[in-house]
Amino acid sequence: AKITFIASNGSSKIAEGFGGSLMELAVSHGIQGIDGDCGGVCSCATCHVHVAPGDMEKTGPASDIEKDMLELADGADEFSRLCCQIQVSDALDGIQLRVAK
Ligand code: FES
Predict the structure, then answer these.
(1) Would the CB of 96 count as within 6 Å of ligand 1?
(2) Fewest C-beta in 10 Å: which of 4, 10, 56, 83?
(3) Which Gene3D superfamilies match (predicted)?
């Protein structure tokens, strides 16, 4: 799936992935602002992204554990997800994610 990441400075980068999590995809493509400090176990919020509103249907909502973590993240809103909790699949092709500041 091809995923567009939009950095906080407005620049965008398309990353193509076939498995693993969106956090791993972002880190392997050097997406600025996605650090993945906890290694993808939903405990650091350094992989916080805002899903484009029209793409929320594809990613689905955050889980309860994820929501608890997002409460601690700056600027979280209803489109927030921790992208280590989203697995790359064909269903996500074309989605846009804005990296949280
Ligand atoms: Fe730590 Fe996603 S990488 S919460």
Answers:
(1) no
(2) 10
(3) 3.10.20.30
Amino acid identity of residue 51, one-letter, is V
In whole angstroms, give the CA distance from residue 80 to residue 24.
17
Q: Is the CB of 38 under 6 A from ligand 1?
A: yes
Rounded CA separation 55/6 (Å)? 14
Residue-level pLDDT at 101: 86
Q: pTM for the whole thing?
A: 0.96
User: Can you give the length of the chain in residues?
Assistant: 101
ipTM at complex level: 0.99
* Ligand 1 atom showing the smallest separation from residue 42 Cα: 4
Q: How many CB atoms lie within 10 A of CB 48?
A: 27
